Amino acid sequence: MQIEQQLSEIQNVVDDVLKLALKNGATQAEASMSKVEGIAVSSRMQEVENVEFTNDGGLGISVYVGKRKGSASTADLNKEALTRAVEKAVDIAKYTSEDPCTGLADAELMATEFPDLDLYHPQELDTEKAIATTIEAESAALGYDPRITNSDGASYNANLGMRVYGNTHGINAGYPSSRYSLSCMVIGSQDGDMQRDYAYTVDRQAPLLQSAVSIGQEAAKATVERLGARKINTAQVPILLHKDIASSLFGHYVGAISGGSLYRRSSFLLDSLGKQIFPEWLNIEERPFIKSGLASSSFDNEGVACKDMTIVDGGKLSTYLYTTYSARKLNTQTNGHAGGIHNWLVGDTGHSDSDLLKEMGTGLYVTELMGQGVNTVTGDYSRGAAGFWVENGVIQYPVHEVTIAGCLQDMFAGIVAIGKDKDLRGSVHTGSILINQMKIAGS
C-alpha cells in the first residue's frame, strides 16, 4: 500500500475518533496514532542470535470534559473497539479531579504548515542482508587485532513508521519516517586486562550508514586503545568530554530548563531566565526543520507548531522549554516542546580534537561515562568514567575506574572550548567539550 494512502487512512481513523468523542460528551479531544514496521537482527561471534520483526500500531485518545481528563488506547481499529475506547476515556474523565491547567493547547498555536522534511527513505526489510551486515561488522572487528578475543555482538535495526496527530481544534496531520542503525561491541584482552568498547552509526537513509567494516574496525580500535588501563590518583584537573558523550552534558541542561522541573521547583535553574549560565561565546540554536534530521518535526506532540529558537544567547539562558500543561502551571505559553527538543546546534570555538588536547595540557580525556549520579535539583554531578590521561597535550595511557565530580553550574560556566567536529547522531549536535576543572576520584 502506498504511504500516502496509509497516512490518509490513519487520518480518517483519527477524525472518526475525535467526532465520537464530541458525540459522547467531550468538550475537547485529541488523538494520536503511530504505526511501525521494522526488523532487528543481532549476531554474536559471527552467529545469528536474534531476528525480530515489528509490525505495531496503536491509537491513543485523550478527552476533556470541562477541566477533567480521561485517556484510553487501543490497537484494535475496528469501529466497535474505537467506540469502546472513546467511551472509556469519557467515563474516566468523569471521575478525575478538575485541573484548571488541563486541556488542549490554544487553537492559534496549532501547526498549519507541514513542509516535507525528507524524513522517509524506505528500503526493503531484507533479513539476509541485515544478517550479513551484522556478521560483516563483527568479522571486521574480530580480525582487526589478535587482542580482540570476544564479541558482545553486533546489531542492525531498520524501522519504517508514521505518526498522525489530530485534535478538535482542527489539526489532523502526519508524516512517515525511517531510521536505520548498526552497532558493534567487542572485548579485548592483554596481560589479564579485559576491556570493551563499541561503535555505531544511525541515519534516516540506509545507504548513508557507515559501512559494516568501518564500524567493526572502529569498535575494535577503541577497545584495543583501552587495554592496559590504569587507575590514577585523586586530583583536580581539566576534563575533555569526547564528542560521542558530550551531548549528555546538554541533556542535563534540557532537564533543568524543562517546564515540568520548573513548576515542581525541582531544578537548579529556577528563576534563571536571562542569567549567564555558559561562557559569553556560547550560543545554542534549535532548528526543527533540518532536512533528514533525527529530531526534525513541524509540530510537537500536542500539535503546536515548532519554530526556530535561540536556546542560549551569549551564554545566557534565553528560554525555558514548555508543554501546554507546564506553561499554564507557570502562567506562560507553550513553545512547542511536548515530546522533546528538535535539533540543538551547539556553537563551537573552531578547535579540532587535537587542538583541544593541546589546550587542556594535562588532564583527563573522558570517552565513557557510567552511572546516573546527577541531581538536577541541586546540580550535583558525580559519574563513573573511563578515558585517557593526557600530559602536555599528548595522550599517555588509558584510564579506568575513576569518578568525575563537580556541580553542573560550575561545569557549564567552566566550559573553555567546544570542538568543531560534531556528533550528529542525536538531537544535540555538539563537538567535544573542554571543562576548566573537575575533581577526579581515583585510587
UniProtKB/TrEMBL annotation:
SUPFAM superfamilies linked: Putative modulator of DNA gyrase, PmbA/TldD
Q: Which Pfam families match?
A: PmbA_TldD_1st, PmbA_TldD_2nd, PmbA_TldD_3rd
Q: Which Gene3D superfamilies match?
A: PmbA/TldD superfamily
Q: Which residues form the Metalloprotease TldD/E central domain?
A: 120-227
Give an example GO cellular component term for this record: cytosol
Outline the extent of the Metalloprotease TldD/E N-terminal domain: 29-93
- What's the domain of life for this entry? Bacteria
Which residue range or ranges hold the Metalloprotease TldD/E C-terminal domain?
A: 235-442
An example of a Gene Ontology BP annotation on this entry? proteolysis
Q: Which GO terms describe its molecular function?
A: metallopeptidase activity
What is stated as this protein's family in its record?
Answer: Belongs to the peptidase U62 family.
* PANTHER family (alphabetical): METALLOPROTEASE PMBA (PTHR43421)
Protein name per the record: PmbA protein
Species: Alteromonas naphthalenivorans
